[in-house]
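Hi all, posting the design record for the shared folder.

TITLE: backbone redesign
STEP: 1 of 1
STRUCTURE INPUT:
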């Protein structure tokens, strides 16, 4: 593919953005060793282009470099661009670029030709000698269309637009939009250097279908569809092995490294085992089961190619975290009106009913795996674009990773934020909002380059010119992608200070071992006193509410607080079980105390409520449920009158069994938990 790149050198800030981002000149221009790039500058003091010499005009337009494969000289030239000193006419610069492409590459050229205009569009376009400015744009667009030249405009606004003439901006936007109507062109507006790097993409991946066939609604109804990838992760470039063993004089040396493997017998290490005597084995328990290639081929699942509708589901039932892999887009077969209408009708009906479709997909014949996914309707807002579906792969049970976390509402009151802390957190989130209502969105995916890839290509360019080049520091433009905006942080320092002061932060002098290591040490006979703590760096911090986390007994004065402190300890995996058992002992002692006092009853209920919350939080519902059933046992409580009063108090506080809804590990259905305290047992 061939590209003509037109860079507008107009304002100091814009050029500084390019210079501050050296990766711009390499990453955006090099994707293939055959790519060729030409640079045309406008807004320069001097004039240097062929059209001026041939027909006159086209002043203040300079060809920095004719069409040529990208090399180090071009990179250096772009990074040292001068600042524009005069107003420039971007239409003149576009004509010069088109002329370069037409002269250098004839109609028979098979590559892609493209012009990219980068400008702030603040300078007025001069009136043509004949016709209007719109007529001039139409003529240029027609010429580009005939010669197969695509056109892209990147308009840099943001701070550069402050103080600009509004009428000039509107006129230039109107003229540039005409290109998108009359030719293969598009216009993009960016606000900062980060967006500029993402917007200038010379590598345009041609859309390739991954499936062409029928969406089977039923045996008698099928819709012809094409499926494309909508998003796909850009992989890190493959680094190949390189050999320097070839003679320097050998011009045809490939320097490739070929790797061969030899399999030797365990019994006779000098004997090489040929391929026909080797077989794959799979570990199954303690043994290895050999499976031949013929058996493996026979056991493979070989479904037929196709996409089948399995059914519909409420959109709310398919959570966002269920999505795996890339996103595909389903469209009706181009040119088929009936299929287009069928897709549109189905998509709009699903949208209206808030439904999604579950489909089974085999993209190609011979594919060994089956994808089950969800089709989400994509209703087009453009009359010229048909409706479609987005496809996301759903996981099977083997793909799901269950991590159970207790509900925040189940935490004790002392562990939940107060109004002041919640307000400070709300202000922090609002401060770092990437899409504030008064400003343009920040870090939009379509304009944000991958900083890892950008940094790699920058270093690759340095290594290509200097073998011993050191890794450069992170570019300032890339730093704005990976770190919070320093200007925003400095401006809202009071918000950060308020958030910090709302929580008690203490230096943590010791870093505790993980639970797994503690258990391993206990099994090995290790001592928590000797080995349980590791030195932590001085900057290590821990957020604590108080020092009462080291309580190891449940006292009589504050049993609930003691229990919460014990169960929150993480210096040993045994503290959860100890805390639960000690709280059960405390409750039993209060219920069985003689003579029976109201104060005991009230304290016992508070302790039982704390025990319930703790067991939910630590995923120990069985311990609570078994203990509650024991407490209901009349024989254990003795006096029936005491038991009846306690039973009624349980019902009034709703201290029933922990159901599966509250804790997934519970074996108690929700209806059984509700019925548990509905009927008071009678005295036998």
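Okay, here is what came back for every position:
SEQUENCE:
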């Amino acid at each position: 593919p061939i590209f003509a790149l037109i860079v507008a050198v107009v304002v100091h800030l814009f050029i500084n953005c390019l210079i501050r981002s050296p990766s711009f000149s390499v990453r955006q221009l090099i994707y293939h060793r055959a790519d060729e790039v030409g640079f045309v500058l406008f807004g320069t003091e001097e004039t240097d282009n062929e059209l001026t010499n041939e027909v006159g005009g086209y002043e203040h337009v300079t060809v920095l470099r004719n069409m040529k494969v990208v090399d180090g000289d071009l990179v250096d030239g772009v990074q040292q661009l001068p600042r524009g000193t005069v107003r420039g006419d971007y239409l003149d610069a576009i004509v010069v670029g088109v002329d370069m492409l037409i002269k250098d590459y004839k109609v028979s050229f098979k590559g892609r030709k493209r012009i990219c205009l980068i400008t702030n569009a603040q300078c007025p376009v001069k009136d043509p000698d004949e016709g209007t400015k719109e007529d001039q744009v139409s003529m240029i667009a027609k010429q580009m269309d005939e010669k197969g030249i695509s056109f892209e405009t990147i308009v840099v606004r943001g701070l550069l637009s402050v103080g600009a003439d509004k009428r000039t901006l509107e006129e230039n936007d109107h003229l540039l939009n005409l290109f998108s109507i009359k030719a293969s062109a598009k216009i993009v507006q960016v606000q900062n250097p980060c967006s500029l790097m993402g917007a200038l993409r010379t590598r345009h991946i041609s859309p390739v279908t991954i499936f062409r066939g029928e969406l089977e609604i039923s045996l008698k109804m099928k819709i012809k569809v094409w499926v494309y990838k909508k998003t796909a992760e850009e992989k890190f470039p493959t680094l190949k092995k390189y050999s320097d063993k070839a003679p320097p004089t050998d011009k045809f040396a490939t320097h490739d490294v070929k790797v061969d493997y030899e399999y030797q017998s365990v019994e006779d290490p000098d004997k090489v085992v040929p391929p026909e005597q080797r077989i794959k084995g799979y570990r199954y328990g303690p043994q290895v089961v050999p499976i031949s290639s013929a058996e493996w081929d026979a056991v493979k699942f070989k479904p037929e190619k196709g996409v089948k509708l399995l059914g519909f589901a409420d959109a709310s039932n398919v959570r966002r975290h269920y999505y795996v892999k890339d996103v595909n887009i389903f469209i009706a077969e181009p040119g088929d009106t009936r299929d287009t209408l069928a897709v549109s009708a189905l998509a709009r009906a699903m949208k209206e009913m808030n439904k999604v479709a579950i489909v089974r997909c085999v993209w190609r014949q011979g594919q060994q795996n089956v994808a089950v996914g969800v089709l989400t309707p994509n209703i087009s807002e453009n009359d010229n674009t048909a409706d479609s579906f987005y496809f996301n792969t759903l996981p099977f049970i083997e793909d799901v990773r269950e991590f159970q976390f207790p509900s925040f509402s189940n935490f004790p009151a002392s562990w939940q934020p107060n109004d002041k802390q919640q307000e400070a957190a709300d202000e922090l989130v609002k401060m770092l909002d990437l899409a504030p209502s008064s400003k343009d969105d920040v870090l939009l995916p379509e304009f944000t380059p991958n900083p890892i890839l950008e940094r790699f290509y920058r270093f690759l360019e340095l290594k290509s010119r200097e073998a011993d080049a050191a890794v450069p520091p992170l570019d300032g433009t890339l730093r704005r992608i990976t770190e919070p905006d320093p200007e925003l942080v400095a401006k809202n320092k009071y918000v950060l200070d308020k958030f910090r002061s709302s929580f008690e932060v203490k230096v943590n002098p010791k870093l505790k071992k993980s639970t797994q290591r503690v258990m391993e040490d206990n099994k090995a006979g290790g001592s928590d006193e000797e080995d349980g703590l590791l030195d932590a760096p001085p900057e290590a911090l821990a957020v604590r509410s108080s020092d009462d986390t080291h309580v190891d007994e449940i006292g009589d004065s504050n049993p609930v607080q003691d229990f919460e402190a014990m169960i929150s300890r993480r210096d040993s995996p045994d503290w959860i079980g100890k805390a639960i058992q000690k709280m059960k002992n405390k409750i039993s002692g209060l219920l069985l105390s003689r003579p029976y006092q109201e104060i005991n009853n009230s304290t016992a209920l508070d302790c039982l409520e704390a025990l319930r919350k703790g067991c939910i939080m630590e995923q120990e519902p069985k311990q609570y449920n078994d203990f509650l059933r024991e407490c209901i046992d009349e024989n254990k409580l003795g006096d029936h009158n005491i038991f009846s009063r306690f039973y009624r108090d349980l019902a009034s506080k709703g201290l029933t069994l922990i159901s599966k809804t509250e804790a997934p590990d519970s074996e108690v259905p929700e209806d059984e938990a509700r019925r548990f305290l509905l009927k008071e047992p009678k005295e036998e």
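COMMENT: The two ends are 92 Å apart (CA to CA).
Let me know if anyone wants the other runs.
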